[in-house]
Structure formats: structure tokens, C-alpha cells
Amino acid sequence: MAARRPIILAVVGDSASGKTTLTEGIADILGRDQVTHVCTDDYHKYDRRERAQLGITPLHPDCNYLDVLEAHLDCLRRGLPILKPVYDHSDGSLTRPEYVKPRRFVVAEGLLGFHAARMRECFDVKVYLDPPEDLRRAWKIKRDTTKRGYTADQVLGELERREKDSARFIRPQRAHADIVVRFFPDPGGAPERANGHLNVQLVLRPTIPHPDLSDVLEGTGAGDRRGIRLELGRDDGLPVDFLEINGHVGADEAAELEEAIWKRMPQTTHLRPDLIGIYTDRNERRHSDPLALTQLLITYHLLRAAHADE
Q1: Strands (DSSP E) along 57-173, which ranges?
Q2: CA-CA to 147 of 20 to 30 Å: which in 30, 48, 252, 264?
Q3: Number of structural domains, the chain?
Q4: Strand runs labelled E in 111-265
Q5: Which domain, by its residues, includes 22?
Q6: How far is residue 253's CA from residue 227's CA, in Å, rounded to a whole number?
Q7: pLDDT tens track for 6-52
């Protein structure tokens, strides 16, 4: 009997858009021993010092070995190990490569995962993170000043240098996603004061079959719901579903949707709720229902793809 191929999730977004927070929760749901993580930003050609000398940003395709990345994704798709380069984000250096063997699930996250059709063909589920720019900038300043040794002025300067490449190479990849995830604060609310109450809008494109949640979201009394809404609409001129979850959603309403998604997952058991929707803010662990439900919905798609492949 042929070995099952790995199921691959790709999460793409600009720097500090929340990719790692999202994917770590998904790995917790699936089980860390079942997940191989690959950072596609490890394929940078140049270290931080060389990029400064050359005047190139890591967002530019020419700054990355995308041909090697394509070949490695193809190997992982076929269940083969790779010798992956490693980029150390703490000091911007290129270090010793890492031997990576795919497990049942592979999570590939980074800046340019949807850049080429050959890469996109390797993925079972494609997710793009699309936070408002002011929120992403706040996240990037917080992360890079606390974890990567930058000053706030240096981060702001780097954001300005990257803006042209971000608009040219990163944001257009949104069009290739099956699910677009947009966390955002309440209108007029400051991102740094959200305290775990960010809202989320999920653009669910018909490129993959989403679970039918109409009995939960459109049943009796659904008109009184204020925390979760499902609406038909258009995105980039194409028909989609918009699933929006308010950051202040009631616990009962969030639990009802969570239970509905769990019930639709093939061959799985419940994970402890405290391992879903967890993120760190100033070294304090917090919980977000919109984040938890987003992670759970993406996990549903991975398990559906795995079940279909058996």
C-alpha cells in the first residue's frame, strides 16, 4: 500500500501579519508530533548586512532562492525529505541548513509562498493574512523591538523601504488564497488597546469546499446574533462568503460555532479549549475567540483533505 502523502497548508502574508501565531495554534490542534513546520523566508539569498549593501529587501523575489523553494515544496508534497536553508531572524544571518522530513501535515509560512504557480500547486489549503496596515505596523514595531533588536525608528524606516516591494510582490498574492483572514479593531479603536478583542473577517472562496454552517448561523434566532455573521458577497469581483466574528462575541455563541466545526471534522477528537486561540501579548498569554475559530476552521480543511486522500 502506497504511503499517504503529506497535507500541506500555506500561510502567506507580509512581515508581522500574524502568520506564526495562527500556525502555532493549528499545530497545537493537530498535535505537534503530526506537523512539520517550514518557513519559506529561510530561502533568502542574502543576510541582513548583504541586503543593506545591495539595497534590496527580503520581499523581492530576487532576494530569495525561489527555484530551490519550488523544488523543496515538490519534494515535501511527495513525502521526501529536504535539506532546508536556515535564516536566523534574531541577527539576520544565514546558518547551518536543517534536515527536514515531512510528517502527516506540513505548514509552510512566509512572504512569497504564492508567488509562482508551481509553488501554489503544492498546497492543499492556501491562507493569506490581510490585517489593516496600521495594525500590522503596530505588530511589527512591537515584535522587532522586543525580539529582533531594532529601535522603533529603525522599524519604521524599514517599513518605508519595503513598501514598494510589499505593494508589488506581497499583496497581489492575496488573489491566490482559498481563505483570506483579516483581523481588525473596532472602528476608531487603537490596535494596541484591543486586548484580545480584535474582530476577524474570513473571506471564504469557493476554491475549496467550506463546511455548511447554515444550521448554526442562519437558524432560528440567528437574526438576533451580533457576534457572528455569515453573508454572501463579492471579493475582487468574484462571489464569496464572508464570515465575520466580533472580538466581543459571547462565550455561548462562540462555543456553539466551535462545536459545529468540531462535529464536521472527520476522524478527530476534541482538544482542550485552552490550547485554541492563544497568543502572547507582552509576555502574557491571552485568549481570542475569533482567533480560535479561525484556527479551527483552517484545521477542518486540513483534516478534510487528509480524509479525502485516504
Answers
A1: 82-88, 93-100, 105-110, 125-129
A2: 30
A3: 1
A4: 125-129, 179-184, 199-204, 228-235, 238-245
A5: 7-308
A6: 7
A7: 999 999 999 999 999 999 999 999 999 999 999 999 999 999 999 99
